[in-house]
């Protein structure tokens, strides 16, 4: 079988990593990605990671402001491709555009669909403490993560996996899934199966406040799971009783539970350089903190500068 021609739609680094894994056995003929966005304090217009990937490999790239306009539709109608592969594009693709490639717009989604439909399934799996997830290859329709399933591969989640480790597993599994199932799908040997909508769950877009610790309701494991899920963004944070915001940049998975503390109160374990912080059902161990307006510090430095201070929910 000759190399299939694929148009890749996407935006983040996750899309780039999967696209790079395809290069040896497909022709990526075009990239569709989101427009450049202002980044940093100076709000410098910055291309998406997938656009940078396209430029690196001299692949034509298009970044439409709007999908449903004559220019975009005309360009898409002129593309020669066996399939369109959508991976974290970030926008709903309207039905009239999907109709340009009937039944040939495929989507990689990092969950065991119909579980965790929506834009943040990796975070949801970690936040909820799941022992497994999956990568789903599906046909795209106009509803969010709703189309029929071509194939799925399960992934085991270790209790110590953070977003970084799980994303890596998803990239590897996605590449394996596509190699195994894309050729027979293109050959008409696979009939996609509708999802069971009665088992569907929906995940919302991540918000900055999702990483906030609530010392009245979050258990030690809840906080560890928030840290695992939100390590990159929005990170796990709380407040000092003085009002300052504090980011817990590093939290350990093995914790000294012999110390008894009130939720939000802390004690320094100087031997291990850990800040032992009480929760409603046990302790967490923080090894790196960043206080609002300050540089990152270790627990000993925090203990020296913030005696008689404790953490509150807001």
How many domain regions?
Answer: 2
Query: CATH homologous superfamily of the largest domain, by name?
Result: Formyl transferase, N-terminal domain
CATH C-level class of the largest domain is Alpha Beta
Q: Name the structural class.
A: alpha+beta
Strand order of the largest sheet: 5-2-1-6-7-8-9
Give the overall shape, derived from the CA principal axes.
elongated
> What does the largest sheet look like?
7 strands, mixed
SSE order, one letter for each helix or strand: EHEEEHEHEHEHEEHHEEEEEEHE
Radius of gyration: 23 Å
Describe it.
The structure is a single chain. By secondary structure, the chain is α+β, with helices and mostly antiparallel strands. The chain has 2 domains: 5-199, Formyl transferase, N-terminal domain (Rossmann fold, 3-Layer(aba) Sandwich), CATH 3.40.50.170; 208-312, Methionyl-tRNA Fmet Formyltransferase, Chain A, domain 2, CATH 3.10.25. The protein has helices spanning 13-22, 49-56, 70-77, 95-98, 121-127, 163-186, 220-229, 299-305, and strands at residues 5-10, 27-32, 37-39, 44-46, 61-62, 83-87, 105-109, 132-139, 149-156, 236-240, 245-252, 266-269, 274-278, 283-291, 296-297, 311-312. The mean pLDDT is 95.
């Amino acid at each position: 079988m000759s190399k299939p021609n694929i148009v890749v739609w996407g935006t983040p680094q996750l899309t780039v990593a999967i696209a790079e894994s395809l290069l040896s056995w497909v022709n990526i003929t075009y990239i569709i990605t989101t427009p450049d966005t202002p980044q940093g304090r100076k709000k410098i217009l910055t291309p998406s990671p997938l656009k940078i990937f396209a430029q690196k490999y001299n692949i034509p790239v298009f970044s439409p402001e709007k999908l449903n306009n004559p220019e975009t539709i005309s360009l898409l109608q002129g593309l020669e491709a066996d399939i369109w592969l959508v991976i974290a594009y970030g926008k709903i693709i309207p039905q009239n555009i999907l109709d340009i490639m009937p039944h040939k717009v495929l989507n990689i989604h990092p969950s065991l669909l119909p579980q965790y439909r929506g834009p943040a399934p990796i975070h949801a799996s970690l936040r909820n403490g799941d022992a497994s997830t999956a990568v789903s290859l599906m046909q795209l329709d106009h509803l969010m993560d709703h189309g029929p399933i071509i194939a799925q591969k399960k992934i085991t989640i270790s209790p110590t996996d953070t977003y970084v480790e799980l994303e890596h597993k998803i990239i590897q599994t996605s590449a394996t899934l596509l190699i195994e199932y894309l050729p027979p799908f293109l050959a008409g040997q696979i009939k996609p199966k509708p999802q069971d909508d009665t088992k569907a769950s929906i995940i919302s877009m991540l918000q900055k406040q999702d990483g906030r610790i609530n010392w009245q309701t979050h258990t030690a494991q809840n906080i560890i799971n928030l840290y695992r899920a939100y390590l990159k963004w929005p990170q796990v944070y709380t407040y000092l009783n003085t009002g300052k915001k504090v980011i817990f940049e590093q939290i350990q998975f093995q914790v000294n539970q012999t110390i008894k503390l009130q939720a939000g109160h802390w004690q320094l374990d100087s031997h291990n350089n850990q800040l032992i912080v009480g929760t409603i059902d046990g302790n967490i161990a923080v090894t790196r903190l960043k206080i609002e307006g300050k540089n990152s510090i270790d627990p000993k430095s925090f203990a020296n500068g913030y005696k008689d201070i404790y953490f509150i929910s807001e």
